[in-house]
Amino acid sequence: MPKTPDTAIIQIARNTSGARIVLDHVTKSYANQPVAAVEDFSMTAEPGELIMFVGPSGCGKTTTMKMINRIIEPTSGSISIDGRDVLSLNPHELRRHIGYVIQQIGLFPHMTIAENIAVVPKLLGWSKNAIGDRIDELLTTVELNPRDFAHRYPKQLSGGQQQRVGVARALAADPPVMLMDEPFGATDPITREKLQAEFLRLQDSLGKTIIFVTHDFDEAVRLGDRIAVLSDRSQIEQFDTPANILASPANDYVASFIGHGAAIKRLTLIPVTDAVLGPVSESSGGPITVCDTDTLRDALDSLVLTGLAALTVVDEARRPIGSISVDRISAVLGADVATPTVQASRP
Amino acid sequence: MTGFDFSRLLHFWSQRWPDILGLIVEHIAVVAISLLIAMVVGVGIGMLVWNRPIPRSVVIAAAGVALTIPSLAMLALLIPTFGLGWTPTVIALVMYSLLPIVRNTVVGLREVPPAVMESATGMGMNQFSVLLRIQLPIAWPIILTGVRVAAQLTIGIAAIAAYVAGPGLGSYIFQGLSSLGSVNALNFALTGTLGVVILALLVDALFVTITRYTTSRGLRA
Questions:
Q1: A176-235 pLDDT, tens per residue?
Q2: Domain range for A176
Q3: Are residues A245 and A306 in the same domain?
Q4: Is the confidence at residue A168, as pLDDT, over 90?
Q5: Is the ipTM above a cut-off of 0.90?
Q6: Count of alpha carbons within 13 Å of B62, Cβ hemisphere only?
Q7: Which CATH number do you get for residue A109?
Q8: C-alpha span between A103 and A101 (Å, rounded)
Q9: Contact B134 A108 (CB under 8 A)
Q10: CA A61 to CA A23: how far, in whole Å?
């Protein structure tokens, strides 16, 4: 346990590459409501893990997330980051080390993009040069040219660009923990897919511990290391890797949440190379091939498109390394139910 | 009453030019001082009550009541305590200015989008810095509009303050009224009135400029 809140916050802040978050029997109830918004919620997020909270609106997933940075104070239970009790820390200082992104973004309209990003570093008393360098670095990271964007105002940016700035702003002080509340929910499908892909690439290099709230199960499957499927009062129905949840939903609630096409969804998580490839000779050839970095879903897509029985799988140098067929794809899914091993493999 | 003669009015102006200029300066001064005080007090009150429903209603209702008191009556009420001249005038003008300034401050602070407030809090700002660094700058154009309305109001009311020997162009209007039938009665009243109207227009233009240069480019339409 920390001696004083201040040193505890400094210790949390020093660990910039992911902290362990533990929620222990956390409950939130409101005086004027008979049932708790969140009831007896316990969960551990490992350092560097991207955890998705999925559930219908009103299930308490956002409330649960907001208790971690104390935007909402829990009624009972304890929350710790890297072993330090969050509830004993100064909430304002604590929040400067927890990145926070919300759906409506909430950029400050009267500040330029650079000023928006500089808010937390300024609160932390960084030097002017350090802040300037950080702004350039972050804008480059989220693929916005600092020279073009630093001095613009939020209203001059598109929705997708604003959301990138929102992420950059949350990353400003290199926090070990990020909380994201449906950050891509308000963007159009094409922009969302692009933002998701960028976000995954970003997380691969940053390794933050992230709690990501969404009601979109597909998004959860695409992004999450582990998914917590939540029902009313933020009850955890299942907490597992996307592959395991898709392969064996814990109950009807989870199954209904996955919806139709669970097998197809699982294929998006499995690289082609996880299948036992057939000999190149099995493929009837043709101009359409599958790259070894593609997922099984991409392979299936090409099979359906061409109507062929098998397609050639090629490596990066476009040398044929084998062939893939619908049977071989099915075999992967069958094997997967018994031994789910695809946790680390993302498209 | 004598008829209106434009050449006589011009002659009146050329004769009393320094006098008129002095009154205009006084008028501007008393309005400016009152507005400054009202702005500090009004924005301060607005910042204190914007998120407290009961004090907010009480303050706005009280400021509304103050505005309904006829200016002549208000000034008369202030004489026993504050005597004649600048003091009762400034007090009366501040009271009339409070409603638009307080109300616009409250509206402006409340209109900041919840998402902006939440991300400010979520980034580790305390309530005071959210108010000072986020809400106030975003509410600024709305607050300035309140001050602008107050300015229009007080330029007119300041003219009445001549009744309690207050400063400004009102003294010409009252002089004209009290000397009805004399040669210059109309010239006095007309000069006072025109002065007030022109002053009001100029101050309004000034506020447009001030708003433009003190509002963040990110907030302008």
A1: 999 999 998 888 888 888 889 889 988 988 889 999 999 889 899 989 999 999 999 999
A2: 5-261
A3: no
A4: yes
A5: no
A6: 11
A7: 3.40.50.300
A8: 7
A9: yes
A10: 13
